[in-house]
Amino acid sequence: MAIIPTAGNDPERLRRCLDSLRMSAAGLTLHPVVVLCPASIKRVRVTKSVCAGRAQLVSLPGPFNYCRSINEGLLQRRPGDGYALFLNDDVTFREPGDLARMKQTLREQHWACVGPHIEHWHGKHSRVKRGDGAVRTNEPVNGCCALWELDWLDRLGPLDEEFGRGWGLDEADLCLRALRLGARYGREDRVSIEHVGHATFGTEYADCNGDAHQRNVRHFRRKYGSEVGLWGQTHHWEPLPGVQVSIAAHNAAPWLGRCLDSVEQALDGFRWTLFLGDDCSSDETFEIALAYQSRSGADVCHVRRFQRKAMTVDQAKNRVIRMGMPYRRLYPAMCLMDADDVMAPGRVRHLLWQARDGGHRAVLGDYLQITPHFPARLNRIVRATPRSQIDRGFGPWATLFHSSLVPRNARLFREHREQVSNGDVDLWVRWFRRGIDMVPFPGEVVHHYYLHEGSVSRPQDPALARQFEERWRRRKARLLGTRLSNVTAQTYATP
Question: Is the Cα torsion angle 430, 422, 411, 386 positive or negative in sign?
Answer without folding.
Answer: negative
